[in-house]
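for the writeup, i need someone to sanity check this before i put it in the appendix. the sequnce is what the collaborator sent (i think, or maybe the updated version? ugh). structure was predicted straight from it, no edits. if anything looks off just tell me and ill rerun, i have time this weekend
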Amino acid sequence: MQPEIFEYHFTVPKSAIDDMDHVNNVVYLQWVQDVAKKHWQSKTDIKLRNTYVWVVLNHFIEYHHPTFENDKITLQTWIDNHRGVKSERHTKIINSTTQQVLVSAKTSWCLLYKETLRPARITDEISTLFF
């Protein structure tokens, strides 16, 4: 089964720019987390969001090309696989004009019960939302 790719588009704000006049590396990482959250929220109802939360286990991020203020970018994210309580999510940050991949990331996430913060097995109800 092919994962569904979620996309989010925006223009790089001045607040993302560092002293080297391009997007700061920490900002890219924030965008990786933000688009994951947007994807989760787009696929789930309030009941699921009140039952579960995701926490990051690790990030692997590669910076390919710089991004600048006012660049139009596309964030793409998808779930590659999951097992037990863990899920692997991929993200690409792409210059919307040139289609050049600026950043690629792989993040391992763990699903938790929101109330207890204990690991929760990823159910078919959840996995079918993303494939």
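The chain has a mean pLDDT of 96. The first strand starts at residue 6 and ends at 11.
thx in advance!!
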